[in-house]
Design a protein that fits this description.
346 residues, alpha/beta, DNA polymerase, domain 1, 2 domains, seven-stranded mixed sheet, 14 helices, 41% helix, binds S-adenosylmethionine
């Protein structure tokens, strides 16, 4: 590396360190227990906080995977500081087998579900009702945007998305308000959508979250198929990891945590909780494929909560792969909310 490249890399690394404060980092590293020679997949690279901690904790290799192209172009500037031990891949963790196919056997996988502070803080990405920008929300920066969804989906579909993915109790009234607003002008910005939801909601009492919080969460989950990705990612991790391999997952809301909790319950019990009792008697196919590293979800301690309020809702669950084959079920029994409305999305 030339001295100029090294100083650009060091500056870019310093910026990444302040862009996003990694959550439960000590607990993540403890659960992954890196030793020299390990190969980790960080399936949600973001600002690379977990990856850097792993690379600093042992002489391991890390594959940093993220679906957001901005993440990878920024990290490419500082990755050479780790002397070839950090490889970057663009893609989704639901398809993580593709990202790891040219790398050595993976010994640990970590997923930190959701959006990064960089995505939330940049108005042009359209994730936040606090920053006015185009109503986008696409992590991959391709596919159907939130604006396309809110301007074209049927009322019943929008209500279903708000209810199922945002757990919004006023889902029907809010969907009606969106349909009424878009009949006079397309809804193109985060500010416009937040104002529509605010006007259609009872006035907010002190200490209550912004009335658009749940609707924005729901649209983000729908646009990025976040729960489908999570279920596919967990099953792919199970197939990739060999005996002793570790899977660590950090989630930020109850819908995500329910999927991870049920996945580990299903996979760590004999007979596989959630597998039909009428299934053919195939003991090997339902032998526990994981043993739990910690029995209960791990949450942030007082010190971390004081430094990083985002850690408030974080939950870590972790398991160690057994020698049993992967479980036959992928999507069922995980508590994935299904959209029931039959109208058109676009
Ligand atoms: C909470 S941040 C991760 C922060 C990271 N642990 C750190 O310490 O900097 C989540 C990241 O995961 C990425 N992401 C979310 N869903 C993904 C998916 N299905 N596949 C790949 N990346 C995903 C997002 O683009 C975002 O950059």
């Amino acid at each position: 590396m030339t001295p100029e490249a090294r100083s650009a890399a060091t500056a870019s690394l310093a910026a990444a360190q302040t862009d996003h404060l990694p959550v439960l980092i000590t607990e993540v590293i403890d659960a992954l227990s890196p030793v020299d020679g390990d190969v980790f997949l960080d399936g949600t690279f973001g600002a690379g906080g977990y990856s850097r901690a792993l690379l600093e904790a042992s002489d391991c290799q890390v594959i940093g995977l993220d679906r957001d192209p901005d993440v990878l172009s920024e990290a490419a500037i500082w990755a050479p500081l780790f002397d070839g031990r950090l490889a970057l891949e663009q893609g989704t963790f639901g398809a993580m087998e593709k990202a790891v196919e040219k790398h050595p056997q993976i010994t640990g996988i970590v997923l930190d579900i959701g959006v990064s502070s960089m995505q939330l803080d940049r108005a042009r990405r359209g994730f936040s009702f606090l920053r006015d920008g185009p109503l986008d929300m696409r992590m991959e920066q391709s596919g159907v945007s939130a604006a396309e969804l809110v301007n074209a989906a049927d009322e019943s579909v929008l209500a279903d998305i708000f209810f199922q993915y945002g757990e919004e109790r006023r889902s029907r009234a809010l969907a009606r308000a969106v349909i009424a607003a878009r009949s006079s002008a397309r809804i193109e910005t985060t500010g416009a959508l937040a104002a529509i939801i605010e006007q259609a909601s009872p006035s907010k009492r002190p200490g209550q979250p912004h009335p658009a919080t749940r609707v924005f969460q729901a649209l983000r989950i729908a646009v990025n198929d976040e729960l489908g990705e999570l279920a596919k990612g967990l099953a792919a991790a199970e197939r990739i990891l060999g005996e002793g391999g570790r899977l660590v997952v950090v989630t930020f809301h109850s819908l995500e945590d329910r999927v991870v909790k049920r996945f580990f319950q299903q996979r760590s019990k004999h007979g596989g909780a959630g597998v039909s009792r009428y299934a053919p008697d195939t003991p090997d196919a339902t032998a526990p494929s994981f043993e739990m590293i910690s029995r209960k979800a791990v949450t942030a301690g007082k010190t971390e909560l004081e430094q990083n309020p985002r850690a408030r809702s974080a939950k870590l669950r972790a398991g160690r792969r057994t020698a049993a084959p992967s479980h036959p079920e992928i999507m069922s029994g995980l508590g994935l909310p299904g959209l029931v409305a039959s109208g058109s999305i676009l």
